[in-house]
């Protein structure tokens, strides 16, 4: 069963987010440390929450893993470097959602 890890960065007036750092440094860091464990990684920059509505999230990243064991390994032994890097591109405390992929 494919497991997804979604990392959501809520928008707020105080939020800062360095998209260049995220794409040029953080995403390659994820690939470097989790590449052998994950299946896919995608990041979506929030543009809107509807017509004339600001986005509720600045960015949502979705990483898929073949199973819960792979996610547990990623978050355990190999997660510290990635989690520690978050402060380098945002002041937001991200929200996390682990789920079961129902379709692809």
From TrEMBL:
Residues 19-90 form the EthD domain. It comes from the Bacteria. One of its GO terms (molecular function) is oxidoreductase activity. It holds the Pfam family EthD. This is Uncharacterized protein (TIGR02118 family). It comes from Tritonibacter scottomollicae (Epibacterium scottomollicae).
């Amino acid at each position: 069963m494919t497991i997804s890890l979604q990392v959501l960065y809520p928008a707020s007036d105080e939020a800062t987010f360095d998209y260049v750092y995220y794409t040029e440094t953080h995403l390659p860091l994820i690939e470097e440390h989790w590449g052998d464990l994950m299946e896919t990684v995608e990041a979506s920059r929030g543009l809107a929450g509807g017509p004339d509505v600001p986005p509720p999230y600045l960015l949502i990243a979705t990483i898929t893993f073949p199973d819960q064991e792979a996610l547990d390994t990623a978050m355990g032994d190999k997660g510290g470097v990635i989690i520690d890097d978050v402060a380098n591109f945002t002041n937001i405390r991200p929200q996390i959602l682990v789920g079961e992929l129902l379709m692809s």
